[in-house]
Amino acid sequence: MKKNRLMSPGPTPVPEEVLLRAASPIIHHRTPQFRSILKGVNAKLKKVFDTRNPVLIFGSSGTGAMEAGVVNFLSAGDRAIVINGGKFGGRFSEICRGYNVDPIEYNVEWGEAADPDVLKRLLKENPGVKAVFGTLCETSTGVVNDIRAIGEAVSGTGALLVIDAISGLGADEFHPDAWGVDVVVGGSQKGLMTPPGLSFLSISPRAEEMLKRSGLPKYYFDAGSALRSYDSDDTPWTPSISLIAGLDSALGMILDEGMKTVIARHAHMARATREAVREMGLDLFAKAPSNAVTAVKVPEDIDGEALLKELRDGQGITVAGGQGAYKGKIFRIGHLGNMDDYDIICVLAGLEMALCRAGFELELGRGVARAEEVFTQLPEKCGRAI
Amino acid sequence: MKKNRLMSPGPTPVPEEVLLRAASPIIHHRTPQFRSILKGVNAKLKKVFDTRNPVLIFGSSGTGAMEAGVVNFLSAGDRAIVINGGKFGGRFSEICRGYNVDPIEYNVEWGEAADPDVLKRLLKENPGVKAVFGTLCETSTGVVNDIRAIGEAVSGTGALLVIDAISGLGADEFHPDAWGVDVVVGGSQKGLMTPPGLSFLSISPRAEEMLKRSGLPKYYFDAGSALRSYDSDDTPWTPSISLIAGLDSALGMILDEGMKTVIARHAHMARATREAVREMGLDLFAKAPSNAVTAVKVPEDIDGEALLKELRDGQGITVAGGQGAYKGKIFRIGHLGNMDDYDIICVLAGLEMALCRAGFELELGRGVARAEEVFTQLPEKCGRAI
């Protein structure tokens, strides 16, 4: 027997309760029965997103909601600052260019967090910028950005602040209303413990004003249509009924655990992972590591792709490789969503054994021991990862 | 005990086998394991769509693929003919207008099928039209259009033929390659017996040529990105993994039954439904009825919305009401996807009892008897509904 253990930063493993809820018989969406489910989901989403704003649900991957975050608020010829510190920051630039929005890119070196002072300078040098696009957790590098400081930098400039929180939500601390974030982009398949196929877009009153003046073309991702349906717990198009039912259960589990506890659990798993891999003699990639994912440099003389293949096909443990220029050079361990301390123990043990087989010199069990030390301490208070 | 029976033209009931397959543990999509599932799904989709062309899968409702059918092939200022005979035909016009494509509308009266001669005339009067948008089964009216004749009318004009087959596929006969259809739009939640959340877009070589010259903005629904990933059984964005696994099982069931048999089963269920409701003294709405759905006029002096509410909340049988101007004036019985003769018997029996309770004069059991007569005849050969 070889069990499969999905330890990637998305898609993440889905609890059996959620899988089975999503396997409920299909009910029609234009009924009081479905509207009652959607009403509950809408209310729970606000709590998990920590926002008073409506959180729209689209049937799409997270990329769809990123596109919605551009096309609903801007017009052709507008300029926007894009904080690009990895594959997903860069995606905002691609979407902007596709819609004739001019992205002023703040290129952050992969592995580093955005510097709010640089952003402030860019905003001063480029008056009239309509929006700033940023990322909470940049999944490709494992970096968490300081969104509170980014929000302060943007505050008062008149620019809309749009944050991709797809992989960070439910793992890294995030308070969009308090931090001045207008639009939050989310996805189902990360911290929300639901299969991929749903994406989210929260919309502040200021964003709603910009929506009215936006001239970019849109139809499926038109937040205006979605908002008009939202108030009656409806959707403009056929919703992904089964995934929304699953999401209802997943959000219930998250709120039962409590958002503070959920964030603290992620902080603790992340810290144990970081300390353990360092104990194995490996180097971390991210200078400001997220609670959602730990990016680790592949040691010299080790074939990174072969290592991950052995872990996945030999041991049944799936972690993620590097993306773009970092393919084969880093790997990324997800500790996100439906995971606990023993999932971390397993991936660390698997990593030690795979490294050992690959000829890397290390003492078996030392990384796991370090994680046990972390886990036997009291969990730290909800907050930024150490 | 009151069981729920979903008898709408979409979403349709999903077989338990498919629901449970979609509840399988999540596997990562960038793995040989998932690519192997996707390879099988891609091959099966071609068989079910009866096309040699690639059938792209999007994570969205059918409306998303309708939008993809516009934005991938046209440019701003292009003119297109839209055959608008109901809510879904009209949606193509809305999408065109949203993207500055000028729709020349062929307005077909609701309940009637498009006349290929009128289309021929429109094409002659409007040279340079870049595309014709049409609908196989117009779900809002229950009409099936003669796509073979529409294909003949368009043939040789240089216009691209895009057909929304969302609700007709797997119910009405449809042979896009033989009939000159370039682009087929599909959805998961109708004849394909899968939960809502997946949509499809097949692309002929001619459509692929137009894709290269299209100037409309797009990102999530960019068929170019999707085609580049398609050849390696991959997707540009995170796919809806669980729904695709479910689809794999559903397509397997459809192909095991055989497409000819599947279409014949739908034709037979549709004929029994039509003859039974007429036997009850009701009138049909569609002049050219689809195998997917039967639209029935609500008798005078009967409250159509109350009738459907009693069926749904009192009897657990969900049929669809009228849309747009026909709300309360017609209702629509779906016989689509995972349904057999006894599902038809139940909805007919429920309808007879609900009509009787509502004060409509009819002899209980006569409609059901007529359906039994149809069902005891040999199934007609695969083909257009009688």
List keywords for this structure.
homodimer, 386 residues, alpha/beta, Aspartate Aminotransferase, domain 1, 7-stranded mixed sheet, 3-stranded antiparallel sheet, 14 helices, disordered C terminus
**Poorly predicted segments of chain A:** 381-386
Distance between the terminal alpha carbons of chain A, to the nearest Å? 37 Å
Number of domains of chain A: 2
Beta strand count of chain A? 14
Fold-level CATH name of the largest domain in chain A: Aspartate Aminotransferase, domain 2
Provide the helix percentage of chain A: 40-55%
CATH architectural group of the largest domain in chain A: 3-Layer(aba) Sandwich
Largest sheet of chain A: 7 strands, mixed
What's the Cα radius of gyration of chain A?
21 Å
Task: Report the order of strands and helices of chain A.
Answer: EHHEHEHEHEEEHEHEEHHHHEHEEEHH
Spatial ordering of strands, largest sheet of chain A: 2-10-9-8-5-3-4
Instruction: Quickly count the helices of chain A.
Output: 14
Q: How much of the residues of chain A is beta strand, in percent?
A: 15-25%
Multimeric organization? homodimer
Q: What is the CATH class of the largest domain in chain A?
A: Alpha Beta
| Structural class assignment of chain A | alpha/beta
Q: Largest interface, with Cβ-Cβ < 8 Å?
A: A-B, 56 and 56 residues
CATH superfamily of the largest domain in chain A: Type I PLP-dependent aspartate aminotransferase-like (Major domain)
Mean pLDDT of chain A: 96
* Shape by Cα distribution of chain A: globular
Outline the structure in words.
Two copies of one chain form a homodimer. With 386 residues, chain A is an alpha/beta fold. Chain A folds into two domains: 5-10 and 258-376, Aspartate Aminotransferase, domain 1; 16-256, Type I PLP-dependent aspartate aminotransferase-like (Major domain) (Aspartate Aminotransferase, domain 2). The first copy, chain A, is built from 14 helices and 14 strands. Chain A has helices at residues 16-22, 32-49, 62-71, 87-98, 116-125, 147-154, 176-179, 205-213, 223-230, 241-257, 259-279, 304-315, 341-357, 366-376; strands at residues 5-6, 55-59, 79-84, 102-107, 131-135, 137-138, 143-144, 160-164, 183-187, 198-203, 293-297, 317-318, 320-321, 330-334. In chain A, strands 2-10-9-8-5-3-4 form a seven-stranded mixed beta sheet, sandwiched between helices. A three-stranded antiparallel beta sheet of chain A has the order 11-14-13, with helices on one face. In chain A, helix 7 links the parallel strand 8 and strand 9 (183-187). In chain A, helix 3 (62-71) packs across helix 4 (87-98) and helix 11 packs antiparallel against helix 14 (366-376). The longest helix of chain A has 21 residues, at 259-279. The radius of gyration of chain A is 21 Å and the shape is globular. Mean pLDDT of chain A is 96; it is low at 381-386. The interface between A and B is large, with 56 and 56 residues.
